[in-house]
Automatic annotation (TrEMBL):
<dbReference type="InterPro" id="IPR023883">
    <property type="entry name" value="CHP03980_redox-disulphide"/>
</dbReference>
<dbReference type="InterPro" id="IPR038062">
    <property type="entry name" value="ScdA-like_N_sf"/>
</dbReference>
<protein>
    <submittedName>
        <fullName>DUF1858 domain-containing protein</fullName>
    </submittedName>
</protein>
Length: 71
């Protein structure tokens, strides 16, 4: 599976690049939308700060990014 975002992409970059990722962010209980820290936090940073599984969050975001790019 080819990644559509790099590991160092910020949550803000991911959400701007693929609006479908916003739903995933909200489903994981994150409030990155509108958060001033989203432009600094990577997926692993956000997962660590919110005590989430980084691999699962990344996989879910990846699926959303890929589905939005396949349309």
């Amino acid at each position: 599976m080819k990644r559509k975002f790099s590991d160092d992409a910020t949550m803000d970059e991911i959400m701007h690049g693929s609006p479908a990722a916003i739903r995933v962010v909200l489903q994981h209980g994150l409030l990155c939308v509108g958060c001033p820290i989203a432009s600094f936090h990577t997926v692993s940073d956000a997962a660590r700060e919110h005590d989430l599984n980084a691999d699962q969050l990344s996989a879910d975001l990846q699926a959303a990014v890929e589905s939005s790019h396949s349309d």
